[in-house]
Amino acid sequence: MPMHSSRSKLIAGVLAFSLLAGGTSIAIPSQQAYAAAVSNTPFKDSIPAWAEKHVAKLALQGIVNGYNVTGGAEFRPLKSVTQEEAVVMALRFAGLADEVKADDIIAYPDSFKVSNFFKPYILLAFKKGLLDQNEEYASAAANPKLAWGSTPASREWVTKLMVKAIDKKELADDLSKTASTFADGNQITPKYLGYVNAAVSLELVKGVSATKFDPKAPVNRASLATLFSRAEKQYQVPYEGQVSGIVTAQTATSITLYSEGKETNYTLDSSSLFYTADSDNPIKAGDIKLYTDITLIGKSGKALYVESQGTEQHVKTITAKLDRVNTTDRYFYAWVNDEPVKFPYSSAVTIKDSTGKTLTVSDLKRDTNLTIVEDTFRTTPQVVSITAEAQTVANTATGQFYSAGSGLINYLVDGNLQSKFLADNAEVIINGIEEPTVSDLLKGIDNIKLTLNDEQEVTRIEVVNRNVSTLDSATVVNYSGDNKLLTVVDPVTTNASALFLTDSSKIDYNGSSITASQARAYLVANRKVKITYSGKNIISLSFIYKQTGTLVSVNSTDKLLSVKLDTGEKVSIPYTSPLLQIPGVSVPTLSTLQAGDTITVLLDANQEKAATIQVHKTLQYQVTAVNTSTKLVSVKTADNASKDISLVNVPITDENGTAVTISALTNGTIINVPYIGSTIVSVKLINMRYGTVSSVSASSLSVTEANGTTSTVSLSKGVKVIKGTQTTYTTSSIAAGDIIQVYKDENEQAIVTVAVGEKRTYWKYDAPNATIWTYKTTSEDNGNFSYITSDTKILYNNAAIQVTALKDGDSITIYSFNNKALKIVKS
Question: What's the pTM value of the predicted model, to 2 decimals?
Answer without folding.
Answer: 0.44
